[in-house]
Amino acid sequence: MLNVPLPANEAERQQALDRLELLDTPADPYLDTLTRLAHDLFQVKMALVTLVDRDRQWFKSRQGLDVAETPRSLSYCSHAVLRDEPLIVEDSQVDERFAGSELARGTPDVRFYAGWPLHDATGLPLGTLCLADPKPRQFGPQDQFKLRDLAYLTENYLHLQHCSQQADALRDALSREQRKGMLDALTQVWNRAGLLHFLPLERAAAERNQLRVGLIYCDLDHFKQVNDQHGHDGGDHVLWESARRMSGAVRPQDVVTRNGGEEFVIITQVHDGRELLQVAERIRLAIASQPMTLENGEVPQTASLGCALLAPDESPVEGLKRADQALYRAKRGGRNRTELAP
Asked: Taking every annotated instance into account, which residue ranges of this chain make up the domain GGDEF (predicted)?
């Protein structure tokens, strides 16, 4: 049950959000760059691109938060969408609009909030670019101008993304409910069901483009030590950050999936084994380039990768098996390296 009023044009607003086909889609490296910039610029715990759905707020991009969604009833973004104007809450415990409310009591980690509405091309509010922090803070006019500019970049990118060929292909291939079942909630990349779904599609596309399907198995090195030393929350953050770095290292048309645990599989279309190794090396270097920042310190992380070119008469299962075997050769060879299957 929502305890925040709905906008008068809620039905129209929800239809606009549904038409964009952004809900329950993989993370986007461009949006992650914007939220990371906002996170660092304002020095807050959380920076998010939030889409306000029927009964939830879903995070298309997130920094400083490990969950994919939260109830709409416990959402400052819902109030920003309701008013269709920026919402600044410097201290929820004393703000006359929210002090003592269920929202303020139910979100103790969000004592400070600043959200700027994001609209579709017709001007309907869809969600926000927002900042949140457990400590109160002042947020003056210059801060608001900076948040406005970042929201402008975010909003216009969403418009462009909606018009792109990649978005058209995704809409044609999967319904929203299918996407939800194929998306890994923690890392916000496709899960194993997504891997199995996209493999034949990528193979058909590669044949049309006169290319080869490349498979890259990526396994985070010594990941158990991360969980042992930093707890599962720390391990979850390393998985999330690793997925971000992988997605940022590959091309927009490549498919990044989480196969389970700390193991990922990337599907890519390439000309030959040399190009496949170049893609894999970009992924390896992106993960190992700098430590991952946790609340209690920094964690150096590396990955081992195994690659295989799918043969014309080979089943995807056999191709994945060869890539997996190459991965184990990389681990036996010292880890933090890439091997290509014969």
From this structure: 211-342
